[in-house]
């Protein structure tokens, strides 16, 4: 292809909270045998606890982080496998790079054959459980999405360093996600996040802040116990070299060594998701302006379209999208 294409698994910010819905992927499961194989494999890997939650459980159960993460991963990979079997899609021929937002990084690694689906769903189930356990008193933590004023992203990053240093002992506010030049998510204690939000608005850096209904303060240092647990689990996982470049959430650059994958996934638990920087790297360094966005929801695709309206973003979210597929 003359234009480099990037494939990414698009999970909604904050571990897929909000992207999942009961019945997602059911159209694929009922229509395509390869999708049934994917869902059944993931279900077996988790001891038969996933499929019922995905297709017949309550929204409340599905939204629990330890269920939402493997469910979104499984649905994304089912979509990919159907594209491969029904439309002849080959990621190594059609794309040069892959990336995923937070949880989606695991989808990107499965898609590029760096890790098996069996291992990945077990890892993200553990990841969700560990993240939930990391905060014993969830009423004291928060996340907030900030609308960043034009050309103020760099100022926000600098201001957050100053705000973090000035917070009272026991309070915390850190940047969890940099999703675009106009959207940043901060994470930490309730008082820390509220103070940071107010200060950024008072400084005319953020236009407004929206509290997010999440179960834990993802991607901040409060998640260190979860990172420690993931470090132990990842020691037993065998990774292979991805068939195309995978862009790391924490470095915003391609993963160059297989032995680095585990460490990067551990660092991702507490580190900032550098999504905006990852997209800039692809556009500025790799001349990427053409994207395939796969998975439930269109949040990241819409962010990309808003940021770069002249770039091409093809979304795949349902069986209908696959039936209408044309590269």
TrEMBL record:
This protein's GO CC annotations: mitochondrion
Transmembrane segments: none
EC number(s) recorded for this UniProt protein: 2.3.1.39
Region (Disordered): 1-21
Pfam families in alphabetical order: Acyl_transf_1
SUPFAM superfamilies cross-referenced by the UniProt entry: FabD/lysophospholipase-like, Probable ACP-binding domain of malonyl-CoA ACP transacylase
Entry keyword Transcription regulation: no
Enzymatic reactions: holo-[ACP] + malonyl-CoA = malonyl-[ACP] + CoA
GO BP: fatty acid biosynthetic process
Molecular function in Gene Ontology: [acyl-carrier-protein] S-malonyltransferase activity
The keyword Acyltransferase is assigned to this record: yes
Keywords: Acyltransferase, Transferase
Gene3D superfamilies referenced in this protein's UniProt entry, alphabetically: Malonyl-CoA ACP transacylase, ACP-binding, Malonyl-Coenzyme A Acyl Carrier Protein, domain 2
Annotated ranges, domain Malonyl-CoA:ACP transacylase (MAT): 16-322
Signal peptide limits: none
Similarity comment: Belongs to the FabD family.
Record protein name field: [acyl-carrier-protein] S-malonyltransferase
UniProt organism field: Mortierella hygrophila
């Amino acid at each position: 292809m003359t234009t480099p294409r990037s494939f990414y698994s698009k999970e909604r910010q904050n571990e897929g909270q909000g992207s999942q819905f009961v019945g997602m992927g059911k159209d694929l499961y009922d229509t395509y045998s390869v999708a049934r194989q994917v869902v059944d494999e993931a279900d077996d890997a988790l001891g038969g606890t996933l499929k019922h939650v995905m297709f017949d459980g309550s929204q409340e159960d599905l939204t629990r982080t330890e269920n939402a993460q493997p469910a979104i991963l499984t649905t994304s990979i089912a979509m990919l496998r159907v594209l491969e079997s029904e439309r002849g899609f080959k990621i190594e021929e059609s794309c040069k790079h892959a990336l995923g937002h937070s949880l989606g990084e695991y989808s990107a690694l499965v898609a590029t054959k760096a890790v098996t689906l069996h291992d990945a769903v077990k890892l993200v189930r553990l990841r969700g459980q560990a993240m939930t356990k990391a905060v014993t008193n969830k009423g004291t933590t928060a996340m907030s999405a900030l609308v960043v004023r034009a050309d103020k992203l760099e100022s926000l990053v600098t201001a957050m360093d100053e705000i973090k240093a000035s917070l009272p002992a026991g309070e915390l506010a850190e940047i969890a996600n940099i999703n675009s030049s106009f959207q940043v998510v901060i994470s930490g204690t309730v008082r820390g996040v509220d103070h940071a939000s107010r200060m950024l608005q008072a400084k005319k850096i953020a236009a407004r802040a929206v509290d997010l209904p999440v179960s834990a303060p993802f991607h901040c240092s409060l998640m260190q116990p979860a990172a420690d647990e993931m470090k132990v689990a990842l020691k037993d996982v065998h990774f292979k070299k991805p068939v195309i470049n995978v862009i790391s959430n924490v470095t915003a650059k391609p993963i160059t060594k297989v032995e680095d994958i585990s460490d990067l996934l551990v660092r991702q638990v507490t580190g900032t998701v550098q999504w905006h920087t990852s997209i800039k790297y692809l556009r500025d360094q790799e001349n990427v302006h053409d994207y395939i966005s796969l998975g439930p929801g269109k949040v990241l695709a819409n962010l990309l379209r808003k940021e770069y309206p002249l770039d091409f973003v093809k979304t795949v979210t349902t069986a209908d999208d696959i039936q209408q597929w044309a590269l």
